[in-house]
Every structure is written in C-alpha cells, then in structure tokens.
Write a structure and sequence with these properties.
Length: 720
C-alpha cells in the first residue's frame, strides 16, 4: 500500500505548489509523480491532484480575503502575557472564529481577574483591527507569513482599555486549557531553573530566563531539545510503556489510553509542526496495530503529512515544518545504524534548510545532539515530570543548582569556535544542496556536495562593491557601511527602545539578522553618535550579539550608561573623537566634521561624519540641529552627494540655506511608521521638494541601501 499512499501525497503537494508557489518546484514534483506513478493507476494520481488543487485554491482565497475579526474575543487562561502598569497582551478567537492577538490596559479589578483566571475570559474591544505588517528590511523575519502559516492569523486588535469578563467552561477544549493552567500552577511551585525548563520541555513555553539562552541553544543547534517536539512525545510514550510494563498493565489498555491521551496533547501543548506530526503518527501507529490495517511506517508518514497539508497548506514553508517532516522521512526511507553516524547524517540533511533560514550552522551540532539527547530523554524529562507531580520534594533545590551548572556549561559551549556563518543562501540553492546531500547519503559520495557548498559559500560572501545601508529600526537611526570584499564594516548607531522594553528589539530581529545574512562575523567599528535611546539604546544588544572591535563616540557621551553598558568586561575599548579627527578602517576613510565644542545638549553633540564611499561623498549627521549645520558644517563648504538627514527629518534640522549649499543627489531619513513626532516634518519635506532633491524615508520605503563602485552607484529600497 505504500506506493499508493505516496502517489497520492506527491501530486497533492505538487498541485498545492502550483498555486501557492514556487511553481517550478510544483511542476517538477508533478512530472515525477506522473512518470513514476502512471503504472499504479491514474485514479490515485487524479485524487492527489484534486485534493491539492482544491485545498490550495481555498488557501489562496483565504489569503487574499482573510476573515475580519468580529465580536468578543475568548481568551484562555494561559493566553495572557502581563506587562507593566496593568497592561496585558492576549490571543484568542473572536465570535466568528477568527484567531487574533492584541493588548491593552485593565483596571484593578480586571487585573485581579486575569491574574487569578482559571477559566476562559471574554474581551470586549472596539475600533478597527489592523492587518499584520510584513518585513521592512532585507532578511528580516517575516512574522506575517509565519502567523498565517501557523494560525491563519491576519489581524491584530488595536491597543485600548479592555473590558474583561469571566466565562464558564463550555467545551472539552476549555477543560483541557484548564489542565494546562493547572500544570503551570504546579510548575510555579518549583525552583526557578526547574520551573523554566519544565515550562519549556513539557508545555512548550520558552519565556523568562529561557529567552536569554535561546540564542545559545540555536547557535549550538540544540534548540529542539529545549522546546516540545516529536522527540519529547517519543520520550513520553516510551516512559509510559516502561512504567506500565513494570506495573504489569496490559499493552492493549495502554494503547486505548494513548488513543484518548494523544489528541488532548494538541490542546495542552501548543501544536507546532513537530508535535502535530509526532502525535498523529503515534496515534495512527496505535490504530494500525489495534485494527491490523497493515500500513507501513511510510504509509503512516504520508497519511500524516497529507492531512497536515490539507489542514495547513503552508506548513512546509516554516522551518519547523521542513525539519520535522524532512528528518522523519529520511529516517523512514533510509535508516542509519549507529548513534554517532546517525546524528552526523541527520545534521548533514538538516544543514541546507538551517542555512537558508538562519544563515549559519554549527559544525559540531551532531556531537552536541549525541551527547545531550540521552541526558534529556533519560534524566531531565523524567525528573521534570516527577517534579510536576511532587513539587514539594526537598531534593529540588539541589537539582535546581545542578541544572544551573548544566546551563552554564551550555553557555560556555556556545562561546567555543565551530559556528559557520554561511550567509544568506537563496532557497533555490538550498533545495539544490538538499537534493545533493540526500543523494550523497544514499550513494556515499560527498565530493560533489563539498564542491557545491564551497561554491555557494563563495557566491554569497563575495561582495565586490561598497554598500551603505540605512536599516529600518523604527523611530531611530542605524546605518551600516560595508567596504568591498569585507575589508571594513562600520555600524553607525544601533536604534533603540526609546519607549519601554521588548524581548525582540530591532537590533536583534533586524540588524543582527542582516549582519548574519551578509556573512559578517564582526564589526570593525561601532560609532555611537550621541546617547539618545533611539540611537544607542540597543548598543548592548549589538555588542552581545556580534564581536565589535572598537566603539567611538564623543568625550561628552563616553560616560553615558547606554554606552558604558554596551561594554563586556571593559571591551570593546571606547575611543573619543571631535571635529578634526579621522576614522580609518581598511579602505574606508571618514572625517569627523562636528562637533567642535560641547553644545551642552545631546543632539548638538552628535558625531557628524563625512567621507567618500564608492563614487559619492556622504554626510552622516546623527541628530545634529540647524545650529550645527549653519555654524560648523556650512563654513566647511563640503561637497555632498548623499545626506543622512539630521534628527529624523525634524524641523530642528535641515536648514534650507545649508541644504541648498550641498547640491545633493539624494537625502535619506530614518523615521518610524506613524511616529508620535510626525517625522519627517512637513517643513523639512518641503525644503527638499523645493530644491528638487529626492527624499527617501524609511517609514515609506523600508530599508534603503546604496551599492556603489568607483564608477557609479544604485539606490535600492525594500518596499518600493
């Protein structure tokens, strides 16, 4: 039966790709399916094509015209995230069944109700929901696509004062969420480290201290061990059979119990692709054994993947979906003997999708997985399950301390060499590389894989031109200068959290991602123009995320806590500059043209840089105001082609006389969408319009970058 199930699955996936893209891959798969499956009967091919086309057509229609949320939102007790000052974020389903997220403030009574919630609550809201926006920078994580692929979520509710009301449980799902809440309450009785790991490994919640370690785990390639996945379902089922065997409970009873238990896990645990695959594969295996369906493991895999594709047609566009189904398929059709050899082979197979999604891979991932997997399966998982059942055990403080040492050891491993910063590999190249890796595993010949990998690495890392990138960090500034062949990398300001804090600031989700995609492993110089939070608030995020060789600022700013806080054990060293100094990094030569004295306020003390990049002269002004422009810059008679507009386009900068004297080709400004200041100011916009100077603003254009050589340049914008 394996061939028939497979010959339904392949055209199903192929026809979905024909409508959802990429078309060429869908056409290729369909050609293979027709050629290989014609002897098994056209009706199976036709069935797969019909299922694929119908499901994809429905998905296209839903994507183009997503349902608008209407009515109150039902929020489960575990779907609240508390903030400060009685602000709460939430997610849930509206009266018409649309999944949404939102946030807002509540009064004292509402805050107590949410904090003590054990049953669902309804949230009354008003206003117009907003569509989730897509990325605004090259290589920025596309949360809009992820939210749609994972939850079919297209809208977010406006922030407002919320009206909440407790609602009694009305369905099995509500009761299961109550079980999840009860488990969380028991975990909260555990010491801090055990609580954090229990939430991650048993309920799939990576919050609190686990957020700080997430990057380390991702770098080592062991993130799947710290979040609920198919591995953990396998371990849980194995422990259940082990326990029931010793209690002499018949397997038949256990199998019936699993048929009831496994589907409930999809509510108690967030249903990621790995959980969905593992639960339904195990469920189908039990059914297959009980009713003697004579399905092979490949049959079961194809049935589960086909069902998941019908339910979530875009599941294979997510990294989790790609890895869980790719590795499972490989294990089913090409099992490898030996733990170390199997781990190395699986690491090789997972390398192409990891590089495409994360721009790098750790060369020792297989070794870390081999060493750590038994610890998780045989020690940590059973220990945490027992801890949830008996949270008052007096041994837990000691175990908590050991777990802290274990985490510190993992952090130390993350500092060791071995991570390969590959760069942004196009997904087409990733598919080609994956096919070659799979072929090499089967035939045992790796030379073509090594040659192709080296060629692809060279193609994505050889940058023969200058590039200046204005990164869209919202209401802030961050500009990256790259010299040809990676001979110099200078970052001017980092952006920052001017209002409140977030676990994923632009410097982390955008700037560090962009640096990784460009294949950059260090920054030669970080210039911090002045200590305003929207310019240097995330300096510490940068210095903790990538090696920085030098930091530069003015003497007036050097002692600010935002700048000193970016140092790690006094590194990198901070150099101070004033007008008249020069900054040289490889072939890049920049002059400091302001400030020439202490202006007494941060904007007037901004570092202003001037230099030739490629074929053009650039003036990068930070938040310098009109006084600096007219008194310090105008008398220097600078020849400027590209201007970084001062103070985000505020009317406090961009003096008309100064701008007219520059004879600009382009002006670039960084300002956030719907920012509270109205940047860029209408007067500033009119100044450039009157002089016929093109003004590009990140709030409209997204990321702006200029590629240049000594012979010419090209200006690019992400959104237009």
């Amino acid at each position: 039966m394996s061939q028939r199930v497979l010959i339904i699955l392949v055209p199903l996936l192929a026809c979905q790709l024909l409508l959802l893209g990429p078309v060429w891959l869908g056409a290729s798969l369909l050609t293979v399916a027709v050629w290989r499956g014609r002897l098994l009967g056209w009706r199976w091919l036709l069935l797969g094509c019909v299922l694929g086309l119908v499901s994809a057509a429905i998905e296209v229609a839903r994507t183009q015209h997503p349902s608008v949320p209407v009515g109150a939102v039902v929020v489960q007790p575990t779907s609240w995230q508390p903030g400060s000052d009685h602000y709460y974020s939430f997610s849930g389903r509206t009266t018409n069944g649309v999944y949404v997220s939102g946030g807002g403030t509540v009064d004292e009574v509402g805050a107590r109700q949410i904090d003590n919630a054990r049953t669902p609550m309804t949230v009354q809201w008003h206003g117009d929901p907003t569509r989730i926006s897509g990325p605004r920078n090259l290589y920025e994580f596309d949360y809009r696509a992820f939210a749609w692929a994972q939850y079919h979520q297209a809208y977010r509710l406006p922030s407002q004062k919320l009206r909440v009301m407790v609602r009694p449980r009305q369905s099995v799902s509500d009761w299961l969420f109550g079980v999840r809440m009860a488990l969380l309450m028991r975990m909260d009785q555990l010491p801090d480290k055990m609580n954090t790991y229990a939430r991650a490994l048993i309920l799939g919640l990576m919050d609190g201290d686990m957020n700080d370690m997430r990057d380390v785990f991702s770098r080592l390639g062991i993130i799947h061990l710290f979040s609920v996945s198919g591995l953990h379902i396998f371990a849980l089922v194995g422990m259940l059979y082990w326990l029931t065997d010793r209690c002499r409970i018949p397997h038949e009873w256990v199998d019936w119990g699993l048929l009831l238990l496994l589907p409930t896990l999809l509510v108690i645990i967030p249903p990621g692709a790995g959980i969905v695959r593992s639960v339904w594969m195990r469920f189908t295996q039990v059914v297959n054994e009980r009713w003697s369906w004579h399905l092979s493991t490949l049959d079961i895999f194809c049935l589960v993947l086909g069902g998941n594709l019908l339910w979530q047609p875009r599941v294979l566009t997510t990294l989790g979906g790609q890895l869980t189904y790719l590795l499972t398929f490989f294990l089913v059709v090409q099992p490898v003997a030996g733990r170390w050899r199997s781990a190395a082979t699986m690491a090789a197979v997972s390398m192409p999708p990891l590089v495409v999604a994360l721009y790098g891979v750790h060369l020792l991932t297989f070794a870390y997985n081999c060493l750590l997997m038994p610890i998780f399966e045989r020690i940590l998982m059973p220990l945490l399950i027992v801890a949830c059942l008996w949270p008052q055990c007096p041994l837990w403080p000691t175990c908590n301390q050991v777990l802290g040492w274990f985490e510190a050891g993992l952090g130390w491993l993350g500092t060791l060499p071995g991570y390969w910063q590959f760069g942004a590999l196009p997904w087409v190249a990733g598919i080609i590389l994956l096919v070659l890796v799979l072929r090499a595993v089967v035939v045992g010949r790796w030379r073509l894989v090594l040659v192709t990998t080296a060629a692809m690495y060279a193609s994505v890392n050889l940058h023969p031109y200058w590039r200046v990138t204005m990164i869209d960090v919202g209401q802030g500034d961050s500009i990256l200068i790259e010299a040809p062949w990676k001979r110099a990398t200078v970052l001017i300001d980092t952006g920052g959290r001017a209002f409140g804090t977030t676990s994923s600031p632009p410097a982390k989700r955008v700037t560090l991602n962009y640096l990784a995609a460009r294949g950059l492993t260090h920054i030669d110089m970080l210039v911090l123009t002045h200590p305003d939070a929207d310019h240097v608030g995330d300096a510490a995020v940068i210095t903790h995320g990538i090696r920085v060789r030098r930091m530069v600022t003015t003497p007036m700013s050097a002692g600010d806590e935002l700048i000193t806080g970016a140092q790690i054990n006094g590194r990198p060293a901070v150099a101070t500059v004033m007008a008249g100094n020069a900054l040289t990094v490889g072939p890049l030569h920049l002059r400091v043209v302001a400030p020439d004295h202490d202006a007494g306020e941060t904007n007037g003390n901004s570092v202003v840089l001037y230099g030739k990049i490629g074929d053009s002269n650039w003036l990068l002004t930070g938040d310098a105001d009109q006084a600096v422009e007219t008194e310090q810059l105008l008398p220097q008679n600078l020849a400027v082609d590209f201007l970084k507009v001062g103070h985000h386009g505020s009317k406090s900068a961009s003096n008309p006389q100064f701008i007219a004297a520059l004879h600009l080709q382009y002006a670039l400004a960084s300002a956030g969408v719907n920012n509270r200041y109205g940047h860029p100011n209408a007067e500033t916009v009119n100044t450039f319009k009157t002089l016929g100077i093109p003004l590009l603003v990140t709030k409209d254009a997204g990321m702006i970058w200029v590629d240049a050589t000594v012979r010419g340049h090209r200006v690019h914008t992400f959104l237009h």
